[in-house]
Amino acid sequence: MTDSIRTAIVTGAANGIGSAVVDKLASLGIAVVAVDLDADGAAAVASRVRDSGLPATSLAGDVSDPALSVAAVDAAVGLTGGLDILVNNAGKGTVQAAIADTELENWRRDIEVNLTGQFLFCRAAIPALIARGWGRIVNVASASGMEGLALAGGYAAAKAGVIALTKTLGKELAQTGVIVNAVAPALIRSEMLSRPTFRREMLESLLARIPMGRVGEPSEVAEMIAFLASDAVSFSTGAVFDLSGGRATY
Ligand SMILES: NC(=O)c1ccc[n+]([C@@H]2O[C@H](COP(=O)([O-])OP(=O)(O)OC[C@H]3O[C@@H](n4cnc5c(N)ncnc54)[C@H](O)[C@@H]3O)[C@@H](O)[C@H]2O)c1
């Protein structure tokens, strides 16, 4: 029985920020269920954690599929007997277009993956977290959810929704031992930035707005997520923690 080990579900675990989060949590002795569309990538991440001597498993699927969130919680319970931490990190960039030109199908997909996916994983995880009497949910939002982002309206609206979801859950769960916070990164080095859908002009204009004059690293996001997933945070819930190199002024 490995009941004394904390166990985390990390979505979008195969690449970028999610992969760095898995490594950071494993370095703290936390077991992991790695969830991603990318089956091979998620399996590789879980195998890396097992090599370090901790329980880990992977699940492949789309976070907007309600069955996946239920399966992930079952996998955590099967792995160590319970669930302690949910990191809702999976997300996708948008097909860039002004709102006036945005196809309904693309809008819906932005919301489904970037917002509904996080709702589904929160909903599935809450009973298991409450059963432990201790839990941490960290939702990955975005600076665009605070500010809006021209040519990425569906993505920005979804991330604003993640912030409202986080604030709502913070209030709903405030007396359960389950703490819910969000991080709002600005520009972080990852595959998302090199995808063809992410235009070079957008990258340059986002970079120009960061006072530190550089992109952030996935490991810098992972540090803050690990902090928010720990005992160190005990009187902050429903809050949004900025990772923007000095860009945020709110
Ligand atoms: N990179 C940035 O500048 C930046 C800025 C703000 C917020 N974010 C957010 O950070 C999170 C992680 O992004 P990243 O930068 O590491 O990007 P990334 O593309 O490197 O990683 C995203 C991961 O999510 C997975 N994924 C995508 N859609 C999925 C789905 N429907 N179901 C399951 N898995 C899915 C991908 O396969 C990938 O492994 C996302 O929520 C993103 O919106 C990133």
UniProtKB/TrEMBL annotation:
Keywords: Oxidoreductase. It comes from the Bacteria. Pfam families: adh_short_C2. GO terms for biological process: monocarboxylic acid metabolic process. One of its GO terms (molecular function) is oxidoreductase activity. InterPro entries: NAD(P)-bd_dom_sf, Sc_DH/Rdtase_CS, SDR, SDR_fam. Belongs to the short-chain dehydrogenases/reductases (SDR) family. This is SDR family NAD(P)-dependent oxidoreductase.
